[in-house]
Amino acid sequence: MQDGILLKTLLKQHGISKNLLAKIKFDGGDLWVNGVKQNAIYSVSEGEVISIHIPAETATVTLKQQEMPLTIVYEDDHFLVLDKPAGVASVTGVNYPDSTMSNYVAGYLKAQDYENQKVHVVTRLDKDTSGLMLFAKHGYAHSLLDKMLQKKSVTKRYFALVHTSEKLEQSAEIQLPIGRKEGSIIERAVVDVEHPTAKFAHTSYEIVRSQPHFTLVDIQLHTGRTHQIRVHFAHLGAPLLGDDLYGGKRDKMSRQALHCHFLSFKHPFTDEMIVLESSLPRDMRLLLE
């Protein structure tokens, strides 16, 4: 650390966002240097000890606190990882004003009477995708994980049942840009790199088990584009079972056969490697059996 650096600059380097710093300043938080309260433009010297008090976060008034039995895979003071069932949206919106994972986590935080009541969604899943979903339990943890996601230091793997296709290899990298499909506000498609909505997308996969009509693949996302897995595999002529939006048949699956089964990241507060797994959900498992 260089002598004379502003406290706010140093805090930014350690994941304190501008919004979080404003919350500390205006909502009852404090900054201390060597046990003395200071403001954000204090000039920090080598060897000084900095402490931060982040005020408790109240519940979002517009987010209903609802209850549903949750499958908790991991929890500590900073993070909460749930096994999301298929058919439940991740966050509220025009189409899903309530009964989402965000509502149920809000209800859980209230029931546990935690000091921080605000819901922080770190990784979200499509409504019909099941599996591991990561929440932060306070704004600083959320900020740190967002930076880790940007640096691609959070690993997420998915199991998918896709229609068997000759274009599928035993293992491969898919690096094809994705953009909005012409004439649709929902669908995405593989597009030319010059397309105005094109965004680089990178997916890797390995075949786990293959049958004449469908194949189980283990997928790793390296980017997080909307519908990325669904679009990339549809482009290979191997749409997900049940994903009729992208050409998958619904005769064997009533929803897109996609499950986030693996999540790992280095805990930003303890440096411990957090490695979490979730087994195949019943509908996908029965089809394989």
From TrEMBL:
* Superkingdom classification of source: Bacteria
For whether the record's keyword set contains Isomerase, the answer is yes
CDD domains for the chain: PseudoU_synth_RluA_like (cd02869)
| Reactions it catalyzes | a uridine in RNA = a pseudouridine in RNA
Key word Isomerase present: yes
Which InterPro entries does the UniProt record give?
PsdUridine_synth_cat_dom_sf, PsdUridine_synth_RluA-like_CS, PsdUridine_synth_RluC/D, PsdUridine_synth_RsuA/RluA, RluA_PseudoU_synthase
Q: Which UniProt keywords apply?
A: Isomerase
Q: Which PROSITE patterns match?
A: PSI_RLU
What EC number is given for this enzyme? 5.4.99.-
SUPFAM superfamilies assigned: Pseudouridine synthase
PANTHER family membership = MITOCHONDRIAL RNA PSEUDOURIDINE SYNTHASE, PSEUDOURIDINE SYNTHASE
| Similarity comment text for this entry | Belongs to the pseudouridine synthase RluA family.
Q: What does this protein do?
A: Responsible for synthesis of pseudouridine from uracil.
Protein's UniProt name: Pseudouridine synthase
Q: Which organism is it from?
A: Pseudolactococcus chungangensis CAU 28 = DSM 22330
Q: What is the lineage of its organism?
A: Bacteria, Bacillati, Bacillota, Bacilli, Lactobacillales
